[in-house]
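dumping this here before i forget
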Amino acid sequence: MRALPALSVRRHSGAAMTAQIARSVLARDGLGGGMDRFWAWYADRSAQVVHRTERIPLDALKGWSRHPVTGTVSHHTGRFFSIEGLDVHIPGAPVPRWSQPIVNQPEVGILGFLVKERHGVLHCLVQAKFEPGNPGGLQLSPTVQATRSNYTRVHGGKAIPYLEHFRDTAERQVVADVLQSEQGSWFYRKRNRNMIVQVFDEVPLREDFHWLTLGQLHRLLGVENLVNMDARTVLACLPFASEGAHPLADAEPAGADGPGGGHPVVPARPDGGEGRVDAGFHHSLVRSCAAAEGSLHSTVDIVSWIADLRSRTDVVTHPAALNTLPHWYERDGAIAHESGRFLEVMAVDVTAASREVPGWSQPMIEPKDQGVAAFLVRRIDGVLHVLAHARVEPGYVDVVEIAPTVQCTPGSLHALPAEARPRFLDAVLEAPPERVRYATALAEEGGRFYHAVNTYMIVEADRDIPDGGEYRWLTLHQLVGLLRHSHYVNVQARTLVACLHSLSVGSPVTRSAVPSAPPRR
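structure:
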């Protein structure tokens, strides 16, 4: 009998990586020219990358067809994605039945950051990327942001740079690797692989890519519509939390000198404040990142809460014909709701020299109004907690995910019953300026959604709010722990986790406009 190979057991600790992350967070100016060097690179790429997006009628799409019976819009290869109709029934919900268009993209894409220590400080390799739905121009994306159809080159175009680091992780360190959902109201059971891979050898730097510290990225999260959704969701998956005292516990909060390093795109605070950091808030946030500081509820209780809601909530969905959906009509070359609210299915023709193919056309989802996604937060025994909402959406793989306290499109509330108004919407929209810790308009995924923007907010509650039912108070270390697993924290909450991390040593001065809501009925 052959002898078994000798094996040995070793301890695995994330403490070293958390310390690396902390050092990178503290490097808010970066290295070698810092923010000025970044803005010069970004301006150069914005000037050099030629792109154009033109709205066209759905019937003018090239390479796409509409099913003669159902009206489903799909690519001639059968790949990429399709736009279909969906019937939804959620018994007991404020709106128990409805029909809608939805994006069906069953393949799993890769969203990945390469990270590397440079001069002893961890850096992330960002890409200046054009997407047809971006409001404005280029946005900062992960190193790799690609669907399976793109990286297998179904389109016959150029290869994806740096993809090999994520397809073969041998001799590299995987920092994070998890399947995460995307918008469950617009995508049907969509998942992407969120990855962070540390490299140790030199990586050739292409012209559309730039190394940034986490501290620099955190400052840029305060610039409207700059750091894209895919970058934000991957950043949220960083192992930011610690078991013992957090490495940032003794760090002094930095002054709020502007998220973009004084770059003119950053608006001033409307209340005239100087953006001084509240040291008490800073320390409560950092304590929230350390498991040793405790939490209101145990993580076992939180997981049990989600499991119970999933087991008791019925979400019944059926494919439906897109061209005969009740209350939806085709007009002016797009499919729209009779109320003029919610969303439209529209089409664009695209020119983009920097992409894998120089031109294409595609259908897109266009939201009709700007949304709000907000966490209410409070300090409990000096440890910051966020009020999480267990949210049901028809496109989730597993019925319920942890969502922001408030996640809605205020402009669409006119077309919904009064019961559909989010419970804490007024507490968010009417918060005094000194309670608003973060408020920045950030775009959603620009490859499928056209000018989809939410104002992301972190608001410190000014009163005691007990939890229960669909709401629970969680710490940041609990959210980070759940993010190691699939389908617990939704994509909007992941953006807010990244934004909370950005407040760990600084305070953006940006205050974006917040959409107004109709009066309570």
